[in-house]
């Protein structure tokens, strides 16, 4: 494989020295970019983008071509490819987001779920990873990803997006045996899925626990973090002669940073509700931190964006172990010029912290 021309993202995740703080954006390939919207129109729909390795590669590269400051590419895919491969029948309703033709509601439903083979059942994702990695040609590292078992389970039980996770939480309290079986199957699947991505060329992986913050403290430990720990312990941690860092991101997980830091990952993603300096005081001696600007700051004027970038960098302070990112995904209405101002500000303002 081609040597990396820019590896500061990987070095920061491992708390090694860097020249500037590396930066990427969650959902950096997305609807805020006119070139993405054009590709999606050409593909026909969102799933056709995801399931065609050439289209997935095309849209993964678009933000890198527009923003030379980006220090990583992230695979263009969706967390719900896993439930789809388990036979749930993923589709997208205009204005309503993801839906499933089947839902799981009983122990029997869960017992009947297959554990997909990443190469047979999700081969299009592996093909996308290898295609993107080849196209990158060492430009920046490639991030693979998956949803967490808890987050995936909420979609499978609810049948789509939910505001209160009523059905899933009812199962959690009324029928924990069933939910644990579902989470265990998902943990096995996520482990093999991420390992497949690593073998196909992903150089770091992130687990998105998007809805972990909806749980009580006790339920988070038992029904979300325990399964992410299981995944982390089963991941390939070295490939192609270098370490493969693992990032855990629980939106709303600020109360549990110490527990997440003990899960065995290399980096911890922070949403915007945490102060990154306080988080570094709490856990930064054992784990790198990723984050954590509020995505809505990108609606503001470039000078205000720059001020907020400077504040977050100052809060983290000197030294490596920080990957700058948003506290959640970039939103579709953001002006691409504002995203560019954000990325430039990170590199320009962070050099002083790495002398």
TrEMBL record:
One Pfam short name: URO-D
Subcellular location: Cytoplasm
The reaction(s) this protein catalyses: uroporphyrinogen III + 4 H(+) = coproporphyrinogen III + 4 CO2
Subunit structure: Homodimer.
Record organism: Pseudomonas arsenicoxydans
EC number: 4.1.1.37
Single GO molecular function: uroporphyrinogen decarboxylase activity
Gene Ontology terms: biological process: protoporphyrinogen IX biosynthetic process from glutamate
One GO cellular component term: cytosol
HAMAP family in alphabetical order: URO_D
Family the entry assigns: Belongs to the uroporphyrinogen decarboxylase family.
Binding site for substrate: 27-31, 78, 155, 210, 328
Site (Transition state stabilizer): 78
Identification of the protein by name: Uroporphyrinogen decarboxylase
Residues covered by the Uroporphyrinogen decarboxylase (URO-D) domain: 22-31, 143-159
Function: Catalyzes the decarboxylation of four acetate groups of uroporphyrinogen-III to yield coproporphyrinogen-III.
Keyword Lyase: yes
Pathway membership, UniProt: Porphyrin-containing compound metabolism; protoporphyrin-IX biosynthesis; coproporphyrinogen-III from 5-aminolevulinate: step 4/4
Keywords recorded for this protein, A-Z: Cytoplasm, Decarboxylase, Lyase, Porphyrin biosynthesis
């Amino acid at each position: 494989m081609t040597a990396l021309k820019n590896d500061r993202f990987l070095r920061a995740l491992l708390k090694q020295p860097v020249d500037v703080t590396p930066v990427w954006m969650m959902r950096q390939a997305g609807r805020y970019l006119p070139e993405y919207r054009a590709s999606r129109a050409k593909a026909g729909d969102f799933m056709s983008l995801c399931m065609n390795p050439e289209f997935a590669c095309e849209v993964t590269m678009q933000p890198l071509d527009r923003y030379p400051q980006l220090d990583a590419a992230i695979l263009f895919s969706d967390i719900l490819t896993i439930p789809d491969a388990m036979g749930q029948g993923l589709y997208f309703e205009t204005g309503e987001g993801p839906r499933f033709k089947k839902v799981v509601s009983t122990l029997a439903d869960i017992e009947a779920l297959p554990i997909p083979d990443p190469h047979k059942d999700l081969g299009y994702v592996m093909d996308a990873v290898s295609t993107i990695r080849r196209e990158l040609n060492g430009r920046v590292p490639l991030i693979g990803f998956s949803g967490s078992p808890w987050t995936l389970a909420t979609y499978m039980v609810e049948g789509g997006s939910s505001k209160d996770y009523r059905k899933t939480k009812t199962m959690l309290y009324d029928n924990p045996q069933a939910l644990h079986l579902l989470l265990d199957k998902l943990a096995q699947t996520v482990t093999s899925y991420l390992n497949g991505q690593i073998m196909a060329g992903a150089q770091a992986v992130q687990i998105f626990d998007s809805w972990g913050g909806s749980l009580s403290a006790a339920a988070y430990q038992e029904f979300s973090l325990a399964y992410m720990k299981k995944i982390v312990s089963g991941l390939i941690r070295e490939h192609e002669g270098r370490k493969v860092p693992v990032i855990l991101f629980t939106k709303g997980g600020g109360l549990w940073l110490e527990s997440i830091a003990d899960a065995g990952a290399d980096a911890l993603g922070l949403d915007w509700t945490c102060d990154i300096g306080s988080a570094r005081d709490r856990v930064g001696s054992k784990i790198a931190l990723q984050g954590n600007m509020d995505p809505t700051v990108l609606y503001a004027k470039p000078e205000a964006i720059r001020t907020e970038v400077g504040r977050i960098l100052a809060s983290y302070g000197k030294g490596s172990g920080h990957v700058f990112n948003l506290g959640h995904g970039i939103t579709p209405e953001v002006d691409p010029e504002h995203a560019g101002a954000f990325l430039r500000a990170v590199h320009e303002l962070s050099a002083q912290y790495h002398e």
